Structures are given as C-alpha cells and as structure tokens.
Amino acid sequence: MKHIEIIGGGLAGCEAAWQAVQRGCTVTLYDMKPHSYSPAHSSPDLAELVCSNSFRSDDVESAVGLLKEEMRRLGSLVMHAALECRVPAGKALAVDRDRFSSHITETLSQHPAVKIVNKEITELPAAAEHPVILATGPLTSEALTDSLVELTGRDRLAFYDAIAPIVSADSLDREIIYRKSRYDDGPGDYLNCPMDKEQYLRFITELAQAQCVPLKEFEKPKYFEGCLPIEVIRSRGDDTLRFGPMKPVGLADPRTGEDPYAVVQLRMENKEGTTYNLVGFQTKLTYSEQNRVFRLIPGMENADFVRFGSIHRNTFICAPELLEPTLEFKSRPDMLLAGQLSGVEGYVESAAMGLLAGINGARKACGQAPSVPPPETALGALIRHLTQSDPKHFQPSNVNFGLFPAWEKKVPKRLRGPKRAEAGLAALKNWLEKEHIQ
Question: DSSP characters for 24-45?
Fold first, then answer.
C-alpha cells in the first residue's frame, strides 16, 4: 500500500490525511502535542481552533461559501465535522470548538490506515521515496522553521494574528443585551451590547489609553489587515470601530426600534450556549486591561472572561517563489506544503490547501501526476494567489472573488455571486471527471 508522511495535526494536516486514506494510502501523522504546545494551543486534540469558532459565511454565492461547497464535494473531513458540531450563528458556519476537535481526533485515530505519532519534528526529513506533506501551520516551531529556511534559502516572513476574548453567558446582563442578527427578522443568533454616543466615546477613550503586551525584540508590528487588533482599528480614528466591528446598522434595539450608536456583537461558542465570543475583538491588550476596558461595554459590567484575547506570531513562506501550483516545493518535489504556512489565511482556506495537498500527495504516491484545480474554482483561485502573485508584495489572503479570473464581459453586481458559484462548480465537476478524482 502507498504511504504518505504528514507533519502537523492542525486543520490542514488532518484534512490531508483524510484525503490520502480515502485514495488508498496509509498515513503517518506527526503532531507534537501533548508533549509540546505552541503559544496559542492548549488542547491535546488534533485540529484545535485557537482563534474564532466561525468558518464564516455558508452562502455558496460568497467566495468562502463556494470554497466550502467545493470541499464538501471532495469529501472534506473538516466540512463534515463542522456540520456535525455546528452552533447557531446566523448565515455563518460556526462550531462548538471542543466537539469539533474531538470529532476529527476520534475519526482519524480510529481509522486503520492512519497512524498518529505524538512527537515533535524539529527538522525536515531527508528526501524519501514517499511524499511528505508539511502542515505545521502559522505557529511552526523555531527549530522546524530554521530547517525550512535551510530548504528554501530565504528568510522566513511573519505577521501577527490576534485572538478575541470569550465570556461566560451567565455573567452577561440580559436586561441590557438583546438577541438579533443583522437585518434578520426574529430573534437571531447573536447577542448585542448597545452603546449610546456617550458610552461609545468613553469606551474608545479608555481603549486608546490601555496598555498592550509589548512585542519582543525580534518582533515587528505587522498585522493581517483582515484580522486587525481592536486597538489598532481604534488608532485609525474615532469612528473606525463604528464603521467596522461595532457597526450598528441592521441591529435595531427591539426596545426602541432604532439602531444604537454602536454595537458589540457576541457569537455563541458552544452548542450549550454557555460561552460567547466577542466578534471582531481580537486584541493584544494585557489581560488586566481587557478585564477593565471590555467591562465598559453595556451588559458586560460583570463579565466572566473564560479566555482573554492574545497575540502570537504567524509564519508563512513566499509561495510565489517557492511553490508549484500543485503545492510541491520547486526545490524538492517529494515535499508538499499545506495550510496557512503556504500563505493562505483562515480556517477554511487552510483546510482547503490540506485537501489539495492530500489529493496530490496520494496521486504522487500512486504514480499519478499531481493536478491543479481550474482558476474558476475557489480552490484554483487560492492556488493562483499563492503561485502567481508578485513575490515582492506577497501577503496571506482569505479567499475572495478578487482572486478569481476577470470577467470577460461586464456582469451586474447582483449577479456576480451566483455566476461565480455556477461557473466554479461547473469547472470543479469537469476537473474531477477529467482527472478521475473521486
């Protein structure tokens, strides 16, 4: 039986393992937990979600929704687990993070073709007869990162990703906080903390003056624009939060019938609804300052913080210079790269690159040529970003329609999502049939 080694038990590594065994390969999956943990991990389970519990929009006419549907059609383990462990989140796909990780851990550990080895890999393995998939993620250890630098011959790149706090539901004041999803009729899935102008101005004043965790000497304040710390958004102007994560539009207070001046939204973290995530409140404030400043939010005066926000290093490579569209290293075809380390951003995108690496790793192990999804698909659009971007300005990206091929003819805005979905799924179907991908 054909064999594949996978280093890293996050979303990408687990998805790669699943895709490989579904295609007749045996897999050895290495994960350093529970013997060693990154600064952001705490659970011994595989596929631990360290930031939000949301996989974002589930609408197939959105870019990330289309990506999810493509993954489902390819038998994604991550997408199956997400649906099994789903919690209410309006039009978004959010999960109970503990059950999600447990589900994936149990599925892989019980599979007869998967061997899980809890061991930290500190250097890349020598060239082997079987494919190796590197899926150690944005928090790759220093030792393994040094080994990766030796392979690529280039200095690593890094940006910093912030985590939002989680609070206990029973510590929230439901006399102030109300339930509503943006624009939706009915109660909705989000809790909303309304602010009037005076409360908002006090909040942003205290936020601006709050103390942050200092960066280490080797760190630079370089953030991913799609996940900026709340205090960094505040620093860009008094109204930036009101037009960003604290936007009140479509969230009318049922007691007044009017939109508040600003709103802080809370999203359910688990199926029991015992904990909630502060949406868009990723932060690098010190724990004591989070405890003080975030309790200025109406309804959160007595909030019990189950987890404070934090900040950590995220590492990625310069994919346009180093990767083939098949996710093979140009300098070492026996090794493929998966997940956020490749230069994608987000849970779904990370798992998607694991999915492709698993498919191509299995094809290589079985003597078949690796394949590249067409650019009209969300999968192919991400590959285009990784391999055709300008190396001098390469930055991680979520999937978005701006990564897709340009329209040949002008398309009305209201039809762009449906047409992208239609074209993407048709192209995926043709690719699967042409390449005999099951």
Answer: TEEEEEEE-TTT---TT---SS
Low-confidence ranges of the chain (pLDDT < 70): 1, 154-161, 185-186, 216-221
Token pair recorded at residue 34:
């529970």
pLDDT digits (tens, 9 = 90+) for 111-163: 999 999 999 999 999 887 899 999 998 888 888 988 988 888 766 566 666 78
What pLDDT is stored for residue 226 in this prediction? 74
pLDDT of residue 416: 92
Q: Is 254 buried (19+), middle (13-18) or exposed (0-12) by CB count in 10 A?
A: exposed
SS3 192: strand
C-beta atoms surrounding 235 within 10 Å: 13
User: Which pLDDT belongs to residue 218?
Assistant: 52
Pair 314, 50: CB distance under 8 Å = no
Residue 218: CB partners within 8 Å, gap ≥ 6? none
Best CA proximity match to 297, nearest among 276, 312, 311: 276
Euclidean distance between CA atoms 385 and 113, whole angstroms: 33
* In contact, 188 and 329? CB cutoff 8 Å: no
DSSP string, 57-70: E--TTSHHHHHHHH
Tokens found for residue 136: 């150690």
Q: Is 333 exposed, middle or buried (0-12, 13-18, 19+ CB in 10 A)?
A: middle
Residues 376, 260: Cα–Cα separation, whole Å:
41
What is the pTM for the complete model shown? 0.83
